[in-house]
Amino acid sequence: MSARQRITADTPPRKRKTVTVSTLSEKKALGEPIVMVTAYDYPSASVAEEAGVDLVLVGDSGAMTVLGYQSTVPVTLEEMLMLSAAARRGLRTPMLIGDLPFGSYEGSDVEAVKTAQRFVKEAGCDAVKLERGGSSVDRARAIVESGIPVMGHVGLTPQTATALGGYRSQGRTAEKAMQVVNDALALQDAGCFAIVFEAVPADLTEAVMPHLEVPVIGIGAGPAADGQVLVFHDLLGIYDGHAARFVKRYADIRDQMIAGVSAYAEDVRTRKYPEPVHTYTMAPDEAAALRAELASGGLTGRRDVLR
Ligand code: KIV
Fold first, then answer.
1. Which of 68, 206, 215, 301 is deepest in the core (most CB within 10 A)?
2. From the CA of 110, how far away is ligand 1's center (Å)?
3. For ligand 1, atom 8, which residue shows the shortest CA distance?
4. Which residue has the higher pLDDT, 160 or 234?
5. 286 is annotated as an active-site residue
């Protein structure tokens, strides 16, 4: 790896301006789509940086895409902080949002604020996201009042997917849609700077847009939203698990990775790798002296380790 490619404190600032909450409001006012993607480590975050996205979410989807859990529920706060801190090191421009994991914020406003503060202090996040309406509205308000920007998340909320009847689209009747709308309005009133709408009908999103002042970021919520978010590993074809209907694949990186590692394995097994170009050399006289020394038994110290 070349140290020159890494973002460090000395890396010159990019031309693009840092994305803030005000940038998002401006984009909404101008009708400019907001681009959000997830990232969970230094390489994925630096790809997001280079691609010029606006928002990077260290989603708890990382539980499945990078940690191999079956759902988002088991991921711990410490794991999310570690992933978020790694993503921070790959970013300069986009706003970085940490996803509060299941069980780390629901208990009380005090717990929610403490957890949100850890994402900001320890991982360098600019904001946090939490799921659901209901009691999450109070938690969101408490975090906002503590000075940390909060993104809401309504519709399909994977942390409580079991209670929602599984990973399925939400708000498909007028009555159920009104529950999603009311959650979104309550989160807006609580001070959230943006709200994710996941897996809801496009009609629902379109109908509610005139009633929301904060940006709506859709994932499976149709084209009317102010922006879109996709999971990094889904859009690049890295994750081999189930892909939801709303996922669009822009690359097949997993196939390329398998092909690359298979070619490497084949080269090692057939002794095609390493080639001279990958190999360090000694001056011939030094190599000859080394061989002579070893042959004469003139070694000092731990001869046994060389046998
Ligand atoms: O965890 C996640 O990746 C998310 C996005 C899908 C919004 O919450």
1. 215
2. 24
3. 59
4. 234
5. no
Is residue 25 exposed (0-12), middle (13-18) or buried (19+ Cβ within 10 Å)?
Answer: middle
Within 6 A (CB) of ligand 1 lie 38, 57, 59-61, 99, 153, 196, 219, 229, 231
For the stretch 28-82, pLDDT in tens is 999 999 999 999 999 999 999 999 999 999 999 999 999 999 999 999 999 999 9
pLDDT value at 2 more than 60: no
pTM for this entry: 0.91
Report the C-alpha gap between 54 and 47 in whole angstroms.
12
pLDDT at 307: 44
Residues recorded for the chain:
307
- DSSP state string for the chain: --GGGS--TTSPPPSSPPP-HHHHHHHHHHTPPEEEEE--SHHHHHHHHHHT-SEEEE-TTHHHHTT--SSSTT--HHHHHHHHHHHHTT-SSSEEEEEPPTTSSSS-HHHHHHHHHHHHHTT--SEEE---STHHHHHHHHHHHTT--EEEEEES-GGGTTTTTSS-----SHHHHHHHHHHHHHHHHTT-SEEEEES--HHHHHHHGGG--S-EEEESS-TTSSEEEE-HHHHTT---S---TT---S--HHHHHHHHHHHHHHHHHTT--S-GGG-----HHHHHHHHHHHHHT---S-GGGG-
Residue 165 pLDDT: 82
Measured between alpha carbons, how far is residue 106 from residues 86, 124, 132, 192 in Å?
25, 22, 10, 16
What is the distance in A from the centroid of ligand 1 to the CA of 226? 16
